[in-house]
Structures
1.
Amino acid sequence: MRDMAGAAERSKLQILVEELRFEYPGASAEALSGIDLEFQQGMLYALLGRNGSGKSTLARCMNGVLAPGSGRVMACGLDTSCEAGRRAVPATVSMVFQNPDTQMVASTVEEEVAFGPENLGLEPDVIRRRVDDALGLVGISDLARRQPLRLSQGQKQLVAIAGALAMEPTFLLSDESTSMLDYSARTRVLELFEKLRGMGIGVVHVTHFLEEAALADEVIVLDAGTVIARGTPAGILTDPSRVRSMGLDPLAVTVVAYELGKLGHSVPEILDVKELLAWLYA
Ligand SMILES: Nc1ncnc2c1ncn2[C@@H]1O[C@H](COP(=O)(O)OP(=O)(O)O)[C@@H](O)[C@H]1O
Ligand SMILES: [Mg+2]
């Protein structure tokens, strides 16, 4: 009995994806063709893959927007095969999207961030605390009274993330949330994801920037609706020809390391320029 209770507790901190298949109505092929994955809280995952490989569909299945065609998604103990499960999931698996403009509905930042908790039917003082906490966590308390639509893209995305965090989720899914941002805003979002991981939140970041994927604990690569690679960033991203075969652009530093290897140098697995320079000048 105790083991079963332990397993139930653990399942609340995981997203389990089992033999998941999904096909959009009228589509000629499955968007997801048998996915088996598990995601743990307190980990940062990067979900990669060429356009149309199924990343957004998988993310939508993980937060209950889409029901599995077949197979199963257990999101924090909730079964998304049933409607009640799907309705409950977004409170614990929150999602942010590519374009912050499409996510803004309220006239001030604090109202925007309060939107999710209000939908949960929480008491006003609880909502107030959650909004203040989320704004503080994201580092935008000073924007509370501003109009979302007057903010920069990067600030708007931080507001959207604060809104997701005000749900006090176990997981945050980011579907290319950095792709429309400039470098400094992207850096800020990535630093925030690392902070959330440290607080025990599981972050699943869909991205096509490999330098972002290099920060993850685990990299998952999709192609044509299946998982074609899964492992550490160093294990997956350091071989440029393998990365190209997965439909991705390799990191420049890995190309340099690979070319040095061809010249006979034994270069360690390197993912960033500082590491390469440290090795070169060691
Ligand atoms: N709403 C939709 N209706 C029909 N087909 C879709 C829809 N959304 C995505 N697809 C198809 O499903 C596949 C996976 O798409 P998607 O999950 O959006 O991939 P990614 O996010 O990796 O670019 C693609 O072939 C895409 O054309
Ligand atoms: Mg997508």
2.
Amino acid sequence: MKILCLESGGTKLVAALADLSGELLDRRIEMRSSGQTAEVTMHQLRRMGKDLSRDTTLAAVSQGFGGTVDRSLGSPTLCYHETGWDQVHAQSFLTDAFRVPVFIENDCNLAALAEYRFAVPKPADTLLYVTIGTGIGGGVVHRGKLVELGNLGEAEIGHIVVEPEGPECPCGNHGCLETLCSGPGLENLAHRIIGERTTARLIMSDFKAGDALADRVCSAAAGYMAQALAPAINLFSPDTLIFGGGVMNDNAEYLSKIRHETLPRVFPPFRTSCSERFFLSSLREDVVCQGAAIYALQRLGELDPH
Ligand SMILES: [Zn+2]
């Protein structure tokens, strides 16, 4: 018996198989077309999943979704990168296709679950996971279980407003953290500070090489990150923070800047417990499918949260 893990994110679609211990065994990755609708994505995921699980008995299908999931329906409702999720009932679609239990959860939340499980050192109680890539998302895991506070999710750190007069966000607000510190956000910030168009990848490589202008951009971005992270720490009191996503890959220098900006703004009694526990993700591109496997196994009662 295997778990079929699916991921629909900003740029790629992934299908993977996991065994009942949660270990990922095999995977397929395809890029999604720009402008692709939800219906096309679900048909593509079904085809990828069918191909991968052709000779396999499945125990469940588990999907990580890059947007809002309505937990009472078990289905996605909104994605800022892709239209049509309000018209597709992904839960029924996958149940009809695979005839096994189907679990769908926000991709950052699943990533948080995977990071908690494989974190070294282990979080004492609570992990705050933050991913910085095409967008910025968060997830909270407490004693091995995903913290689920609302029917439509929680820990949307990317939509904390850090500059009220800042750029317009797809959510309708202005100056959300995501508009200034995601990959595209950093590019906007660099344009404002340096006066030139550049890429997030180049900003980070210049920053690591000691470039003064890139350092100014990263210092400003780390300041914005701190404005959102410190209140998040005050609210959730995590003992461990893990940072993933493309912007953070191999980026200990930027992590150090974020930590340095954040800690002085944290409620002092909470500062000591997390001050030495800001880490980079170790799971990288497998993190969502890995989390999807763990989530399904926990829901099936096959895996203890600890
Ligand atoms: Zn927003």
